[in-house]
Amino acid sequence: MIEENLNRIKSELPSGVKLVAVSKFHPMEAILEAYQAGQTVFGENRPQELASKAVQLPQDIEWHFLGHLQTNKLKMVLPYATLVQSVDSVHLLQAIDNWGSNNDKIISVLLELHIGAEETKQGFHEEEILDILFHADDYKNICFCGLMGMASHTDDQEVINADFERIDTFMAYLVDLFPELTDFNQLSIGMSDDWPIAVRHGSTMVRIGTAIFGAREY
Q1: 115 falls in which pLDDT band (50, 70, 90)?
Q2: In sequence order, what E strands does 118-204 have?
Q3: Pairing of strands 186-188, 107-112
Q4: What is the pTM of this model?
Q5: Under 8 Å between Cβ of 114 and 123
Q6: Pairing state of beta strands 41-44 and 62-65?
Q7: Domains of the chain by start residue, with CATH
Q8: What is the average pLDDT across 45-58?
């Protein structure tokens, strides 16, 4: 079933859009099944779970961290994550930069833009992201790779369209404004229920879990 689901999604995804299989809460057997079907990029949102899976599963897997990351958990994530998609505060950004400096590593990150209606969602406002990127040189061990966002939790496609259009427009503005940030080209929007809309709004990376693995195991 996992292989079937993966093949169906990949057949519908445009070339150039990366599929991140969101494997959080799913057992290693399910990840291995996806891996054996050709999927090599996986996303986790719990530091301890990521660290445990990363050391036990094939070493050519590309791990992305997707959840809210506490600064005291960096050592469980940064040795393994190819990309931290969910940087949502200056405090976290500074801590990641310091960890990178202390461990002689450049950390690739996406800045999370708060675009959905829910107040509980993490993320920056546009002016905060602008301020960070105007001072990008201050972060010697950070590679700014783009933006990440989540649409409002709703079935109203007009609302979802508006959310994704907003982040797509802002992304284009940033690319024009900061041409020196040559790696700033990734837009991670779209999940199991709304990824086709996200792709129409410039997504380069979709984060799909339920549509691949089925309901989560807790």
Answers
A1: confident
A2: 142-148, 186-188
A3: unpaired
A4: 0.95
A5: yes
A6: parallel
A7: 2-213 (3.20.20.10)
A8: 97
